[in-house]
Amino acid sequence: MRVSPSKIVLAGALLALSATAASAGWQDQASDFDKHRLASLGEAKQKALGEAKGSGGTGDASAIDSALGPASHAPSAGEVTGSWRCRTIKLGGITPYVVYGWFNCRIAMRGGGLWLEKTSGSQRTAGFLYPGEGGLVYLGASSVTGEPQHVYSGNGASAGAAATPDDQIGLLTAISSNHLRLEMPYPVQESTYDVLELKR
What confidence tier does 138 reach under pLDDT thresholds 50, 70, 90? Predict the structure, then answer.
């Protein structure tokens, strides 16, 4: 099969973009809006936990304590690399809490940096991990099955909105060698606080 020169150029450009993003610090990539979101992680967590105490949540409520209760530490690349089972927990916002079922995630080297990706389920998450802030800072984007994978834009605006709805920022820490949590404060849509719990 003959590959057109334009496709080769496009593939090379995307590879170069990934390598550039992975080698830079997260502060160089993040919008001011997202830097503020990460700085407000503690505030958002407490607010969301308060909202989650209301009635009418969906899913296994005990998952909230198992994911957010234990102390955690900044993990090394070796601790996080590999395949994981993962589930999303949404706290606060339009409903007290929603705990989804388990899907598949993977953390691997890509373009010179660590890349996290939720690889199954209708809602996908993908982005780079950067050292800093007591853990690994995640800059990524959400997408749904059937559409192209979104990448972190960092432009902080979309169609006149205050922030790009798909952009995500969070902090990945390790509870144990087989248990991680990715905390994402103040998502643009739906909830007050999102947690991606990873186990293996």
Answer: very high
How many C-beta neighbours within 10 Å does residue 145 have?
9
Contact 80, 180 (CB under 8 A): yes
Domains of the chain in sequence order: 5-199 (2.40.128)
120 close to 129: Cβ distance less than 8 angstroms? no
> Which residues sit opposite 127 in a β-bridge?
116, 140
Predicted TM-score of the model (pTM): 0.84
- The angle that helices 32-39 and 41-52 make with each other, rounded to 10 degrees, is 60
The two structure tokens encoding residue 161: 């909105």
**Backbone dihedral angles phi then psi of residue 50, each to the nearest 5 degrees:** -65, -45
The residue behind tokens 């927990």 is 89
Q: Where are the beta strands (DSSP E) in 54-96?
A: 82-91
Residue ranges in 53-151 assigned as alpha helix (H): 62-68, 77-80
Dihedral sign computed on CA atoms, order 51, 55, 58, 59: positive
Structure tokens at 150: 């979104």
Q: Are 100 and 89 in contact (CB under 8 A)?
A: yes
- In angstroms, rounded to a whole number, what is the distance separating the alpha carbons of residues 19 and 108? 14
Summarised one tens digit per residue, pLDDT across range 96-123 is 999 999 999 999 999 889 999 999 888 8
